[in-house]
Amino acid sequence: MDATFEALSEAELDRVAAVYAPLTQAVRGLVDATVRTRADDDVIQQARTTIEAVTRSLLSQRTRSSGVGYRVDGRPLPLSNAATGPCNPIAPPLVVHRDEDGRYRSEFVLGAAYEGPPGLVHGGVCALVLDQMLGEAASEGMTKPLFTGTITIRYLRGTPLGPLRAEAFIERSEGVKAFARGHLSDASGVAVEAEGVFVKPAWAREAE
Amino acid sequence: MDATFEALSEAELDRVAAVYAPLTQAVRGLVDATVRTRADDDVIQQARTTIEAVTRSLLSQRTRSSGVGYRVDGRPLPLSNAATGPCNPIAPPLVVHRDEDGRYRSEFVLGAAYEGPPGLVHGGVCALVLDQMLGEAASEGMTKPLFTGTITIRYLRGTPLGPLRAEAFIERSEGVKAFARGHLSDASGVAVEAEGVFVKPAWAREAE
To answer: What is the pTM of this model?
Structure first.
């Protein structure tokens, strides 16, 4: 892996929370409105012009280099992660908690932007959520370097858009492999199950 | 499935292409800029205020009802699909072509908003792409109602952000099941493989 990491100071971390995360949250609202709007043409045209100007303003100064990760106190802080990133408008974002029993859990709401069949979450978005959750469990909250080897997603029924919860845990470990399992559920119970094999990369094995 | 479908006229379809799709494309640009920007606080604050006003304007008139799908000439047109929707800023979007050999192919670019590990596509985004591609193949371009039963994703190596291609095809069909296979690749070859079982829903079987 060619990724480089930059240490993020406490002050910079505060700035992410106070400045960049609220911008990202505003863009999430805009994404949702864009999917759902049926406003008149002049409103849409004006919105488009305004958004293009905002985009230019955001790129007119410094931008983040591609392939750079951030760490705080040695732990990776995935600012732009597509599932959990506080600075990524595509991320719901998942906020993942580790319970005392060692399980990783997250509660979140998926709106219109995550749709597949009408009214249901896209099966691939279910996979995105479960890939992240199983990865969190297998890597013990992203503190260990691990890559997904294989993941299998089993769809028991359609997952309705709206409030959902996901859960994952390590079932067993064998040498460089961790076997994780999890599910996605709504108020009626489990809708999607997943199991995955996660593998420690060679460079991390050599470093031990 | 409780989804209802609305027929979309040619005139409305033209309006989607001329008005809503360009707005969506502008929001995709904003999403990318939001992930990458490191602009000063005053620029970020101003952007946020402007975006919140645009969001209000988009929601001030009519909005699309949840759970409504659209059809053109009897074929579903997934306006807000999270992988292919021309009106969904989260969708790259995938534009899927059927080749003469019956394979479904798509070429697309995944930027910073689709990141997992630094510089690499999120494993769950690879799963989203492959779920959609296998679904397209299994349902013969979404002309047949099918749900994903199980999908298995095998990660051969990290997938770099940038230009990518995906491919899928039906391997075999058995009664109500279709077995599909596919992969995601960059210029160096295949990075992720997938296989899935897709099942015709009971209501579609009864209608035959």
So the answer is: 0.93
